[in-house]
Amino acid sequence: MTQQPKSASRLARLRSRHAWLDHLVRAGERYTETHGTHYAAAITYFSVLALVPLLMVAFASVALVLASNPALLARLKAEIGKALPAGLAQTLSPVIDQAITSATTVGAIGLLFALVTGLGWMTNFRDALSVQWGQGRHPPTSYLRRLGSDLASLIGLGLAIVVSFGLTAFVDGGFAGPMLGYLGLGDAGWAGWLLELLAVVFGLVSSWLVFLWVFARLPREPVTWRSAIRAAVGAAVGLEVIKRVMVVYLAKVIETPAGAAFGPILGLLIFIFTVSQFVLLLTAWAATARENQVEPPAPVPAPAVIRSEVVVRSGPGAGAIAGLLGVGVITGLLGARLLGQRP
Question: pLDDT (tens digit, 9 = 90+) per residue, 85-136?
Fold first, then answer.
């Protein structure tokens, strides 16, 4: 019974001594209090539901725009595959190929279905981020305004992803190699390492740009850019770590009988759920920074209640007793005077 107060006081001392630990504990408390795991599960469900139609419409549109540059389109497809673990890239590659080859047949029905599922995903994603920032207490806006805002956010996020992967593909395949050859370093051994390092750096920068848009613009109310920038750095680095861990984990899962049958689907669910939890934890970490701490408003006092006080006594009061005593004294004096005059 005496162990719990000691451990609690030790944690409090460590939190007061280390600011980073106190910030981490506050972030965990915010994530738990706002049901972050439930929101991550909802994001996973809507992500799987919206992933295929969104990919098909997005790549069909890109294929129409880049019809005259198939090399850049192939590089963009390759960069999308690099952003996912190996098993997931192989699962989604046929979907992307079908969207590219059938770009002209993806009509209004496919676009409408993609918009409906994409809006459902974006609405839940923005709600999850806003709750972590403590923005769920404000009254909601009108439905049409909310729908328009979610649609603009969905288009903005799609453009950010396309620009990010396009920049990486351009630097990785279309710019860095010819530039090294122009400088006469194409055959140098260390130039190849430099090219790989440059590709990794640009990959991290492209991921950082996407996450910066997520943390800064997707919450329903404005947030501080300083916190969004730091959270985006952590998300870009953490995503690379998650992808490498998932490659090993999915390889072990596929070896099992259940994994051989449902490996790609299970891998997709686990990957999206892990990334969703990680993004929400980073959002809670950014929201609980010292510069974002807001003093809670003072509680509203309870309404005043006026009650009339009624006192019930079983015997005579003090005034009645004093009056009776006065009457008795006067009566006694009058009686004594009458008896003295009678003889």
Answer: 555 666 666 766 666 666 666 656 667 777 888 888 888 899 999 999 887 5
Most confident range, picked from 19-33, 55-69, 256-270, 297-311: 19-33
Cα–Cα distance, 206 to 162 (Å, whole number): 10
- The pLDDT score that the predictor gives to residue 343 is 47
Buried b (16+ CB within 10 A) or exposed e, 159-188: ebbbebbbbbbbbbbeebeeebeeeeeeee
Supply 41's token pair: 């599960």
> What are 46's two structure tokens?
């809507």
Q: What is the full DSSP assignment across 247-313?
A: HHHHHHHHTSHHHHHHHHHHHHHHHHHHHHHHHHHHHHHHHTSGGG--PPPPPPPPPP---------
142 — alpha (psi -120 to 50), left (phi > 0) or beta? beta
Please give the span between the terminal C-alpha atoms of the chain, in angstroms, as a whole number. Answer: 94
Phi-psi region of 295 (alpha: psi -120 to 50; beta: other; left: phi over 0): beta
Distance of CA 94 to the CA centre of its chain: 31
Per residue in 161-194, pLDDT tens?
A: 777 766 666 555 555 556 656 566 656 666 667 7
Structural domain boundaries, residue 43: 12-135+145-292
**Does residue 158 fall inside a structural domain?**
yes
Task: Indicate whether 275 belongs to any domain.
Answer: yes
How far apart are the C-alpha atoms of 24 and 101, rounded to whole Å? 48
pTM for the structure as a whole = 0.68
Q: How many domains does the chain have?
A: 1
Residue with tokens 């059938």: 102
- 237 within domain boundaries: yes
> Is there a domain that residue 317 lies in?
no
Reported as half-sphere exposure (CB side, CA atoms, 13 A), residue 216 has a value of 18
CA–CA–CA angle 156, 268, 252 (5° rounding): 145
